[in-house]
What we know:
2 copies of one chain form a homodimer.
Chain A (H helix, E strand, L loop, with lengths): L2 H22 L8 H9 L6 H13 L3 H22 L9 E2 L2 E2 L1 H5 L1 H19 L8 H15 L4 H11 L6 H25 L6 H28 L2 H4 L5 H4 L5 H5 L1 H20 L7 H12 L3
Antiparallel strand pairs in A: 1-2
Helix pairs in contact in A: 1-4, 2-6, 3-4, 3-9, 3-15, 4-6, 4-7, 4-9, 7-9, 8-9, 9-10, 10-14, 10-15, 14-15
Amino acid sequence: MRTAEFEQWVSKTLQDVEGALELWVPKDSPAGLGEAMRYAVLGAGKRLRPLLVMATCEAVGGQPEAALRAACAVELIHAYSLVHDDMPCMDDDVLRRGKPTVHVQFGEAQAMLAGDAMQALAFEVLTPEADQVPLALQARLCALLARSAGHAGMAGGQAIDLASVGHPLSETALRDMHRRKTGMLLQASVMMGAACCRACSPATQAALSEYGSAIGLAFQVIDDILDVTQDSDVLGKTAGKDRDANKPTFVSVLGLESAMRHAQELRDQAHIALSTSDLTNTDWLIRLADKVVERDS
Amino acid sequence: MRTAEFEQWVSKTLQDVEGALELWVPKDSPAGLGEAMRYAVLGAGKRLRPLLVMATCEAVGGQPEAALRAACAVELIHAYSLVHDDMPCMDDDVLRRGKPTVHVQFGEAQAMLAGDAMQALAFEVLTPEADQVPLALQARLCALLARSAGHAGMAGGQAIDLASVGHPLSETALRDMHRRKTGMLLQASVMMGAACCRACSPATQAALSEYGSAIGLAFQVIDDILDVTQDSDVLGKTAGKDRDANKPTFVSVLGLESAMRHAQELRDQAHIALSTSDLTNTDWLIRLADKVVERDS
């Protein structure tokens, strides 16, 4: 199904996102702060969240300028969370996206500030002058992003993660943690793409929400699988660290084979959510769901 | 000038802000995250920023429901910055608002996450359903808050602060640092209050911006003075720490007497900005400018 076309779309979209981030992440911020922010966010990463925003926006026929801002904002939130997550008081990791982590490169204080400034920047990017993105849409995008990043979403998931080291978690608790920690921002990427079209019906939004929820969880299941099956070189981050930290994972709870089967079921759920919606232009979303499950890093 | 009335207004406004924060800062967030957030933000602090938002909103005749959200959002940003600023990799402080700092009470990882979640919560608070605050106003408030908190504002100022320890700063550089680190969020408090009125003229906005800028700087000058003239009990935070850290301050650059005179000049500037505007209901703003300069903690 249109593999070459999909790859072309990915490559073109990544170029747009990279160009926009290059423009919006400051070069000349005081005392090296901009440099640390750029190091953290430019030129690396799979950019799955921006691709989800842009693919959803295309599927619903939304405003691409708004979607590009949403794509960069959600990537900034993701990138800031990695910077803070890697710090000594959290995961204490030295390798990320194949490079030394931000605090190794710039010091802990600068890493914390860079992360803080990246979160603020996400909301700066979402709130340009009114002639660029309608104000009502800006507000809607800020609402979606803030809720997925905050205490009930990503930050809450990280708090559960932190509290769960060395404690056995039930499968239900593990799902809840990952839904918050990773799933909600991935789902928000889809819903922000959908918000870029004013005419998106509640039924279509519900289908997209289900799609986003399924791939959000699939992403984490695969992450847990890769953590035990790949080495650090391929991942660009330290492999085996969940096991070493005695963290519960889908692999430790379900076993490797069941975890893989579960990821495939979630991909199927994502496909079904799209095929039972009234959307027609869903090829890229289907391929992105495949990509989430078939990735090797 | 209406001292008793002013004190009554302050007390009523603080009650409203406290009640709203009590409602909006989550009780039941996962893994103790909500508890850490509530510890950091509830029941303490001078609430100068919320008072500025509310006083400005009254002066321009704006929407009080929107202003109350803006007041809480700006306080959440301020409180998160204190949590992160107190951490070992930054100022390494153990006392804040008369209590052990958040990382002392809950651990560093939880403190970092609580700060992160408080920044997100600020934008959640600003983006309720459309029937509560008009969407265009939500977008405008998010824009003002994000820019004052981010790389060109508060976070940028903190990066300069970090880089300046042990380095002599010129008066100009010191002003630039403080304008970003403290001044811009105080000024944003005023501008967010002004934004709550759709009819606020550009001339009025300019006057309020000048008022906000002057008291923003005055606040920091007084902070520097109190750091050397008061003890920790009165301040509720560790006194003398700028001197101990060999940080440049207005006192070290100007001397104590000139610094005090400078704070009074800034207060006068703030008063003049108001008196030359077309605003009539400025009593609370005038009193708040006095309060900034006359405070002893």
